[in-house]
Amino acid sequence: MPHLLPYLNEKLIEAGCDEAGRGCLAGPVVAAAVILPKDFKHELLNDSKQLTEKQRQKLRPVIEQEALAWAVSFVDHQEIDEINILKASYVAMHRSVDQLATKPEHLLIDGNRFIPYKGINHTCVVKGDGKYLSIAAASVLAKTHRDDYMKKMHEQYPHYAWDKNKGYPTKVHRAGIKEHGISPIHRKTFRLLDEQLSLF
Hints:
- By secondary structure, this protein is an alpha/beta fold.
- It is 37% helix and 16% strand.
- The chain has a domain at 14-151: Nucleotidyltransferase, domain 5.
- The chain has a five-stranded mixed sheet, sandwiched between helices.
- Helix 1 packs across helix 4 (133-156) and helix 2 crosses helix 3 (85-99).
- The protein is globular and about 55 Å long.
């Protein structure tokens, strides 16, 4: 398996950015921005989609302790419904960059599009969490922080199996919507069921 690259530009302070929860039917979209030391290494940190939940939870404290700066931001279901999920993903990334204790000189963005962040150049990297350590680290933080939130929400709204699906559109999740209706944190602009019109 190829090792991830430590940086795109050795001379710049780079922050990797990624989000989690874009395709979910409920809950927030969560983004993280992470600035790693240039010599950061960890045998587990690879493309986060290849990692198990246990491995991600193990990596999270390591990243949070060893990163030069990191931040996580939530954009909730209401804001997603107001501005659309794509914009919400960018807003979450911008908010994470806003919160970094060290100001980055360059942003590495997972994906193929981004709304430029004022005063900082960026590079979009398709499947970036499988290419750069800082994006992979951001992906781990975004995913673990979001998963923890959805597990808490599962305790309040247990009908949708969010402890397992985290809000993604699984059969069990859709069956829960069909039987119990939607929860207060469902995204109303998303296609929650095939027969959407009968929902509201």
